[in-house]
Amino acid sequence: MAVVGIDCRFPGSPTVEDFWRLLLDGRVAAGPVPGDRWDPATLTDVKSGVDTPAAFIDDAAAFDHRFFGISPIEAAAMDPQQRLLLQAAWRACEDAGYAPRSLAGTATSVHVGIMSSEWGNIHLTDYRGMTPQRGSGNGYCMAANRISYHLDLKGPSMAVDTACSSSLVAAALAATTLRAGEANMAIVAGVNLILTPALSIFYDQAGLAAPDGRCKPFAADADGIGRGEGVGVVILRRLADAVADGQRIYAVIEGGAVGSDGRSNGLTAPNRFAQADVIRNAHERAGVDPHDVTFVEGHGTGTRLGDMIEVRALGDVHKGRTRPVLLGSVKANLGHLEGAAGIAGLIKACLSLERRTLPGTPAGAENPDLKLADNGFRLAAGTTRLPSGTVHAGVSSFGLGGTNAHLVLSSPPRTPTPAMRDEQAAVLTVTAATREALAANVAALRDALAAEVRGRVAQFAWTSTRVKTGLRHRAAVGGIGRDALVAACDTLTRTLPGDGRPAAPRVALAFTGQGSQYAGMAAPLYRHCAAFRHHLDEASAALGELPGGTLVELLLAGADLEPTGLAQPALFGVEYAMGRTLVELGVRPVALLGHSVGEFAAVCVADGITLADAARLVVARGTLMQALPGGGAMLAAAVSSAELAELVTVEPGEVLDVAAVNGPRAVTLSGTEAAVERAADAIRAAGRTATRLRVSHAFHSALMRPMLAEFTELAERVGPGSPRYPLYSTVRPGVAGSVDGAYWAEQVCGPVRFAEAAGLLAEAEPTHVVEVGPRPVLLGLLRDVLPAHTSLACSPGPTATGGELASVVAALYRDGVDLDFDHWFPPSARVRRTLPGYVFDRDTRFWFSADDGRSVAAPQRSEPAEQAAPGAGTGTPAAGITTLVLAAIAAVTGHAEAALHPHAQLDELGFDSIMAMRFVDELEPAIGPLDLEALLPNLTTVGTLIDHFERTHQIAEGASV
């Protein structure tokens, strides 16, 4: 089994990297009892154990209840161990390369090692304060079931209590579950919180407690157990599955065994021979010779008897070696984490194998009475570099009642990392449950990115698109290389949106026409963007050999693209590649609009014509037009069509046609030189602007007719096609349901009806318009025609760096378009990299009440708006149904009424079936009998619930809840 994900929160180390630094530094986390646990001064009648130091985590009361959709009332009643597990499990899934919500419905099992239920012991004996949430918020089973419920996992879900070996036994059971095919992935956890001095007193009375609260495993100064707390989670998969999916592997569990001491010289006394049997069985099942083991992460409580028996049991299996096994225990750093002790040792061993470094055990000189060398061991007193090749290790955990576990591990298989192109255009994504959390998570990802190796930036970004998705508030940035993405993150944090995910954007794609081309256009994009490069290569192959080389060769060489025979195929190829990239990513346009030759790319991207047919027509079109005699001219005039008729006359023998109507006062004329010049003089004389265009021919005019017959014959060979997305035609009025050869022939001489098409486009109500082309031309024309929308350009023109398309993609994702980023990143970038775990809000705390610190759990919040609302019977006057409903929701959930906006989802507020019944009880005194079954379909949002009651009930003036 492969360990593919890790998260932990241990004393002095709130993250995995902090834990690793603590191990390397040899720090010991023991300290005095925090003031929020118990006050030793009030227990002077207890002889000893109440003020013994231990290793505590910081701020155990903080919990991001909103993230998990848990109401304040439920969060206050929950065992805080469950809260720690929820957050650590989420981050471990991220570390394994999953967006946790993507696991919904999967056969993922949950196995939690836990031996403490002190929160329940305190609160379930407060009979007068009992609530439904206290009942469901406590109990070992819920420690695992919470994770399965919130992630919607369908595999086995269980809590394991074998005392000190609980979490390592949980890991062994998870491996068995995976091996049996009952699950495809397993979340294995261990958790422990020290909320009372009960076990401290027990250890002291049993003669097991270290006076200074420190474990000193296998050391001469070993004098007992020092307690510790924390949470650790690992993600397991079958090795073959993990390798096939390219997951990061910390270590491999080759095999393991669990057994009992049976009858020994006391229920709590260890049994050397039973321990040896478990270790021996683990090696047999793993197929690993004990003499091949490099180090053992021992149970190592630091008690004289316990250490002696453990070393002799290990010696029964390992003695006789030529090179000693290194022996250590994480308890020297963290203390004895009881139910979480095994997972802490497992995580330390996995990190050591992955990083090929074994941190030392800061316990002091080894105990000579243990005779470690005679038993084949040496105390791992200092940091040791592990040898090359496959390294094997053992992890032991022994339970107070006699349940023992041992796992045999090996270092991860070495897999080659694909070579990366430098400076790839990348998109980085982040999502969060709240706007405040979004800012914190963007900052965390930004800092991690700034420290990433440059050649791995694209892999880092790809991982973000796999892991950091699925939550309400979105952020994304695009750019080339680490520095650009870091700078974009800095800018983004200053401009984060205030609302959650908007309604699905309606995207229109506008394809630029001739005149936007320039030498070297899209060359930076080709170099830096794999997705665009792939599609431009397709287009280049379809276009074939052009004058001077292939399209790709011409663009990269910076060739002159002004000749029509090159300009039209070049524009088509570039726009096809841009548009196809967006559609393949998942953009589903509500409209496409193409200006002149841009319409070929629009129809082709919409699958209304094949790439081969479109390329053949565009090459022929450009070649035939270029072969026509020169002498034509074109003019852009700021006049309406009606004004044009009054101002311009045409002399006999001249040609002057309307080539395009781009807006209410934007017309393009095309014709013979003399006619165009005369028209320009007349328009300017009327005080209007008229600008000559740099063109080789008078396009979209009667001067194109000499090439029409040959082009029409070719176009008629192309069968009719129906675009998959609405094409707002600039040739014929309306949306083109079918495009055939006659359409393309008509387009040659006919005017471009852009203004008319744009007016119809407004009916599609696009929220975003993306101009697909080498420089923005159409966005300005559309800005005054369409209602408020977001304008995005795939390229700014000659100043393009190649990162602009990535920024467009990031903006679309940020605004709510769901994209498949695997189509953006090349295979070499689709490698999982380690990202920082989700940064949870820490502004809300739930702990013991301020009254006496023991009697009840109560929310402690730093935000005044989150204070719990009053319950039933307060007599608060209400002006109507809205006030009554909000007060009732607040009463049963604990949310402040100010937080209950109409769009708030009730399930995200933690509104469950029990609360629904209480909600009815709250309202019936004011409204009368309610039918809960009729109410259930309306339990979606706060606004929907209010609307339901406004439709079905009349509220008496002065009613209260």
Q: Would you give an account of this structure?
A:
With 961 residues, the protein is of the alpha/beta class. It folds into three domains: 2-33 and 45-410, Peroxisomal Thiolase, Chain A, domain 1; 507-630 and 696-814, Malonyl-Coenzyme A Acyl Carrier Protein, domain 2; 867-952, Orthogonal Bundle (Non-ribosomal Peptide Synthetase Peptidyl Carrier Protein, Chain A), CATH 1.10.1200.10. The strands form six sheets. An eleven-stranded mixed sheet has the order 3-2-4-5-1-6-13-12-7-8-10, with helices on both faces. It has a four-stranded parallel sheet with strand order 17-16-22-23, with helices on both faces. Strands 19-20-18-21 form a four-stranded antiparallel sheet. Helix 28 links the parallel strand 22 and strand 23. Helix 22 packs antiparallel against helix 25, helix 30 (881-893) packs antiparallel against helix 31 (913-927) and helix 30 (881-893) packs across helix 33 (942-952). The longest helix is centred in the middle third of the chain and has 22 residues, at 564-585. It starts with a strand and ends in a 9-residue tail after the last helix. 55% of the residues are buried. Residues 850-858, 861-879 and 955-961 have low confidence and may be disordered. Keywords: Phosphopantetheine, Phosphoprotein, Transferase. It holds the Pfam family KAsynt_C_assoc.
